[in-house]
Amino acid sequence: MKTGTLDLLRCPYCGGRLELVESSFHERDGDEIANGILGCHCCVFPVIAGIPVMHLDPAAVAAREQIEAGRPDLAARRMFGLDDEAQAAIFDAAAAAPTSTYRELVEALGPGFEGGYFLYRFSDPTYLVAEAVVRAVASTTLRGGGRALDLCGGSGHLTRSLMDLSSPAPVVADFYFAKLWLARRFTAPGCEPVCCDGNAPLPFHKHAFNASVCSDAFHYIWTKRLLATEMMRVTGDAGAIVVTHAHNALQWNPSAGMPLPPGAYRDLFEEMSPKLFAERTLLADIVAGGPLDLSVEHGADALDADLALTIVASTRADVWRPYPLEEPADARGEFRINPLYESDQEDDQVRLRLRFPSDDYEDEYGAARTYLPEEVVVARADADTLPSARLTPGLTSLARRRVVLDLPRRYY
User: Fold this and answer.
1) Rounded Cα gap, residues 356 and 342, in angstroms
2) Model pLDDT for residues 243-299, shown as the tens digit of each residue
3) Coil/strand/helix, residue 70
């Protein structure tokens, strides 16, 4: 973590400022704190591998004790949840290898890690909607400077879409340390990760952000009123809040969590004049090429009937307008074939076939078939240019349909 991030952080329990405890074991390089202890009026929290851990879960307490004993390696192992020595050795070897990919490190974390969902995230229907809405709103509230927060951001897929809009770099916050470590190493290098609990007060000072985002997670939070209040506190009147893929209590969902009906989501953010949108309608607009119209809230019938909702809350009038969709341009990482496709070489062409990784995945994300073709043939000359930073004319239309994706380097 950067030493400047200390200005951003506040204790989630007493609200006090934090400082590096110089009398305890610590490692720093210039303005980067790699390992150490942060202290406030009431608590001490560890910084492990550059990630501040701002909660008191038993694993975090045990990791803090390892930092105090001068063993950051064992602290990291505890936060990765690697209690099995053989699995820990596999992960340590993969993490030390400079050529390891995101996919390889996810696999090295073992079968208990939620890896498959993240590997295919960049072409999921939920991600298409989240990225479009978040970039639209952030392009308004972060114009001219301002920081973004990706709350419950996992391994930073949506954080990555904010890297060129947020200044300073966006913060990605999540309870799971391993996901944040992956975010900083692969998905969103340069972001500021903070390990914290969404069911507790957020460890940030008032009005720290001009855009706060929570995607595909709000329905899993038990203390929704607290989280909504906290998101409004850390965002303030100059910004906006975006909650995407919030499960709808009026519709059945195989991984429902603890969802609310549309009106209850609206009530939580009423202080910031929210508008609600049906995810299915937004996805159809995006697949059709846009624009993404945030000027008019969707009607009750559409909201009640949809499995998931998007909530945008802001008191800024300039947020509420139609937004043109962005065209594929230079890659943030590198353009590659979507990992959902199998490829076969056929002389001067390549045949791509859509293959979902499991029946469960297809059940949940089957709406991807509205834009991912079952089969497509690509000229060999175009396919051979991948991976690349720019698209050939023959690949541009495939990028629009997410057959070709802008992926982090060394992703799979």
Assistant:
1) 10
2) 999 999 999 998 999 999 999 999 999 999 999 999 999 999 999 999 999 999 999
3) coil
CA distance 109 to 274: 39
What residue type is assigned to position 26 of the chain? Answer: H
CA distances from 51 to 5, 17, 191, 230 (A): 11, 17, 11, 21
Let me know: does 157 contact 310? Beta carbons within 8 Å. no
CB-based contacts of 399: which residues, under 8 Å, 6+ apart?
A: 328, 335, 391, 405, 406
Spatial CA neighbour of 275 closest among 249, 293, 260, 252: 293
249, 223 in Cβ contact below 8 A?
A: no
Q: How far apart are CA 19 and CA 347, in angstroms?
A: 62
**CB-based burial, 335-366: b 16+ in 10 Å, e otherwise:** bbbbbbbeeeeeeeebebebebeeeebeebbe
All structural domains of the chain with their residue ranges? 1-80, 83-113, 121-323, 334-407
What's the pLDDT tens digit per position in 186-199? 999 999 999 999 99
What confidence category does residue 112 fall into, taking pLDDT thresholds of 50, 70 and 90?
confident
Q: How far apart are CA 63 and CA 55, in angstroms?
A: 11
Q: What is the number of residues in the chain?
A: 412
Closest to 121 in 3D by CA, of 111, 112, 132, 131: 131
Closest CA to 311 of 237, 228, 223, 207: 228
Between vectors from CA 308 to CA 302 and to CA 312, what angle results, nearest 5°? 85
- In DSSP terms, 279 is beta-bridged to none
Strand-pair category, 148-151 with 322-323: unpaired
Q: What is the DSSP letter of 320?
A: S
- The token duo for 367 is 């709406």
- One of 2.40.40.20, 3.40.50.880, 3.40.50.150, 1.10.357.10 is the CATH number of 121-323, namely 3.40.50.150
Structure tokens belonging to residue 391: 């698209």
The residues with which 341 forms a beta bridge, in sequence order, are 354
> What's CA 230's distance to the chain center, in Å?
19
Vertex 10 angle, CA 258 and 274, to 5°: 45
- The pLDDT value recorded for residue 321 is 98
With H, G, I as helix, E, B as strand and everything else as coil, classify residue 367. helix
Give the model confidence (pLDDT) of 382-411 as tens digits. Answer: 999 999 999 999 999 999 999 999 999 999
